Amino acid sequence: MIGELLEVSDVAPDDDFFDIGGNSLLALDLLARLEERTGMNFTLLDIFRAASPDQLAALIADQSREGSGAEAAAGPR
Question: Taking all residues of the chain, what is their mean pLDDT, rounded to a whole number?
């Protein structure tokens, strides 16, 4: 996703979005794409804190677990 947005063909898992050409306006675009593809809500601060593909994947996994945990804790309806 980062490679698509920045039009960079070779993005390593630990490449920082901002170091390889990203900026705050592109971060907003990345934010929108993440939310569209995952159905989860993120903030711009999340993008600044998790600026590499590895970090973004971990953020998505964490939010996914948190969402699953909340639903499981609520029990059946």
Answer: 88
Residues 53-70: tens digit of each pLDDT: 999 999 999 999 887 654
Q: CA-based angle 59:65:16, to the nearest 5?
A: 10
Residue 27: closest CA among 51, 61, 56:
51
Torsion sign over Cα 40, 21, 23, 5 = negative
**What DSSP string describes 33-64?**
HHHHHH-----HHHHHHS-SHHHHHHHHHHHH
Q: CB under 8 Å to 65, separation ≥6 — which residues?
A: none
Q: Can you tell me the distance from the alpha carbon of 46 to that of 44, in angstroms, rounded to the nearest whole number?
A: 5
51: how many CB neighbours lie within 10 A of its CB? 20
Residue type present at position 58: A
